[in-house]
Amino acid sequence: MKDISKYQGIIPAFYACYDKNGGVSPEGVRALTRYFVEKGVKGVYVGGSSGECIYQSVAERKTVLENVMAEAKGKLTVICHVACNNTRDSMELAAHAQAQGVDAIAAIPPIYFHLPEYAIAKYWNDISSAASETDFVIYNIPQLAGVALTMPLFREMLKNPRVAAVKNSSMPVQDIQMFKAEGGEGFVVFNGPDEQFISGRAMGADGGIGGTYGAMPELFLKADALFRSHEMEKACALQYDINEIIYAMCAAKGNMYAVIKEILRIRAGLDLGGVREPLFNLTAEDLLQARKAAEMIDAAMARHLR
To answer: How confident is the model at residue 306 (pLDDT cuts 50, 70, 90)?
Structure first.
């Protein structure tokens, strides 16, 4: 049976790191990677929604991955999201990711045009063919991509032996059970919605990939440990506190990832810049909200990490 241990655990989605001029900051990328290594997470998911991938060029996305790998290789599992809104660029990023030595590549469906499922399957398989020695992760996020991973499409993709996992960000946790059952022994499903981490694990998710993990990795690591030790009452209590923190991070006028970067500045001394327009950066009032969320994280750590 295939060893899936490298995919089991807490895998934060990597944040876009910018310099003062709004360009990708290699120094910021390396600092954030070192932060995740120090926190003891299982791996990182590079170039996804949290990485603002749809607002970055192919060259910028290569720069991000190269600098992540310079710090992470041998220390973290690295999954690189390579999807662009055209097949050629996606295949270029897939080939680059394999050359960098990532553990897996991932891709959402093509967005904007509503393509038939056979076209989506070809898009994913073409991307996979450009990294033919690397695991492929289907990223199911219908609320943003506008396309859901149906069971017929999933069965078609399972014909590709490189398809190793689904990153499931649909809201029904039942989807996790269905993909695990259909995928069979050794197939990996990641929980996507951070607010449902414990629910997703209970339905069979092997671990989680999440956009808020990086703001509070200690809490998600603890939640996973509580689940593994079958301390469900404590795990649920921690999940409730995590959710309140997420609601607080979403209460700002600015984008949630801008809030998280401010939290990382407050709690970890990381300067990762803002977010790239048209994402909205923080207002003066948002700085207070970010500090409130940071204080909530500290309070939750004091309650649960004893």
So the answer is: confident
Question: Which fold would CATH assign to domain 9-217?
Answer: TIM Barrel (3.20.20)
- Find tokens 């990641």 and name the residue: 190
- Supply 136's token pair: 């492929």
pLDDT at 291 over 90: yes
> pLDDT tens digits for 33-43?
999 999 999 99
Burial of residue 195 (CB within 10 Å: 0-12, 13-18, 19+) is: middle
CB count in 10 Å sphere of residue 240: 12
Contacts of 169 (CB under 8 A, 6+ apart): 139, 140, 141, 143, 144, 192, 193
Q: By C-alpha distance, which of 222, 235, 181 is closest to 205? A: 181
Catalytic residue numbers? 139, 167
Enter the pTM of the model. Answer: 0.97
Measured CA to CA in angstroms, residue 116 lies from 136, 150, 153, 154 at distances of 21, 12, 10, 13
Q: Is the pLDDT of residue 1 over 90?
A: no
